[in-house]
Amino acid sequence: MKNLMSPRLFALICFIAFGLAAPSIAESQWDKAAAANYMDERQAWWIDWPVAARDQNTACQSCHTTVPYLLARPALRHVLGEVGRTLPEARLISDARKRVTMWNEVDPFYPDQTFGLPKSSESRGTEAILNAFVLASWDAREGNLASETLQAFENLWDLQFTRGEGRGAWAWLYFDLAPWESKGASYFGAALAAVAVGMAPEDYADSPEIQEPLGLLRDYLLEDWQERPTFDRLMLLWAGSELRGLPNPADDKTILGDLERLQNEDGGWSLAALRGWEGREEYVPPTESDGYATGLIAFVLQRAGMPAEQENVVRALDWLAHNQATDGRWPSTSLNRERDPESERGRIMSDAATAFAVLALTEAQKTGH
After folding, report:
1. DSSP for residue 54
2. What's the Cα-to-Cα distance from 45 to each of 65, 140, 291, rounded to whole Å?
3. CB 239 within 8 A of CB 221
4. In the chain, N or C terminus with fewer CB closer than 10 Å?
5. CA 191 → CA 30, 149, 218, 229, distances in Å?
6. Which residues contact 263 (CB under 8 A, 6 or more apart)?
7. Does the domain formed by 25-366 have CATH 3.30.390.30?
């Protein structure tokens, strides 16, 4: 008699019969190698892009391409069976360390002489946070706190506001570009600083010499936090997942309710819905699910202690598993203006989306989802 059972059904029956767990959709249906290739190619482009070139033969740190790449690319190393860091990783870490050690000699990313006041101070504050973030993330995987990372944190604390409006935070770049260089984005930066402190190995967060500025940072993040936009409270949850003394999902039922209410029927989230950003020249940001919002939320919820089996997390991971493009990226579009999604600038939002999609999906695999 001809066997009418499909190979896929036969495999599923074998898994059940022998008490094994069938691979999840999130694990089995996304292309890890393609995601890695996309991120590597985009980071190589960024390093060589003349617009990203900075003083002392370094490249600009970026919240959309460089920083998410350095957080997500190592997460793929184990699952792909790779040994050693990629060339873009090595270059970016080298750049960060170089700029940290040359802090008093290297030009700001956007000097006042070229871009006007107060871009030098905004650049310094932003870069101090990003340097500490990427180096602490790297050291967390290596297991020891490098001297350059300690210097990065010293630079960070030296630039923290200690009085007046914004006390506890830092100057942050503003170019009227959502989501990272827009009004209110200094809160995003301060949350990244908290994540950096929490990630740093060797119990850096408990160091006696940083308790006063760290207290100022906590106070800044906690001030009126329940009235902040959903995007800000999401960043606070991420910070709280790494640094003690900040809220977690159990403390903030409202953000979980907001996220459930804002989740689209297809399981994803729209970035435009998380803060109410408005585009330029009557441009209306898209409200369909995108990879950045969905990946970021799914990643943060898991880091904050929500199990991958939680219904809204499962739906988000399923959306991510089914919405990867053939070239490895996840879709996300500009909040500011209409852009050609295939252009170099048009893919910038997809750079961040791909990194956080990878982080969410690899985080789920850690828990066996």
Report:
1. E
2. 10, 27, 21
3. yes
4. N
5. 30, 18, 9, 14
6. 269, 312, 315, 316
7. no
59: which DSSP letter?
Answer: E
Alpha-carbon dihedral angle through residues 146, 68, 309, 332, given to the nearest 10 degrees: 180
Q: What is the token pair recorded at 336?
A: 């500011």
Which residue matches tokens 């209306």? 284
Residue 321 forms beta bridges with which residues? none
The count of other CB atoms within 10 Å of the CB of residue 229 is: 15
Residue at token pair 């979980």? 256
DSSP code at position 312: H
Other CB atoms within 10 Å distance of the CB of residue 319? 24
Q: What is the pLDDT of residues 259-314, one digit of tens each?
A: 999 999 999 999 999 998 888 888 999 999 999 999 999 999 999 998 899 999 99
- Integer-rounded Cα Rg, in Å, for the chain is 21
Q: Which residues pair with 53 in a beta bridge?
A: 59
Q: Is 234:296 a contact under the CB 8 Å cutoff?
A: yes
Q: What are the tens digits of pLDDT across the range 16-58?
A: 333 333 345 455 689 999 999 999 999 999 999 999 999 999 9
CA 346 to chain centre: 19
Write out pLDDT tens, residues 179-222. Answer: 999 999 999 999 999 999 999 999 999 999 999 999 999 999 99
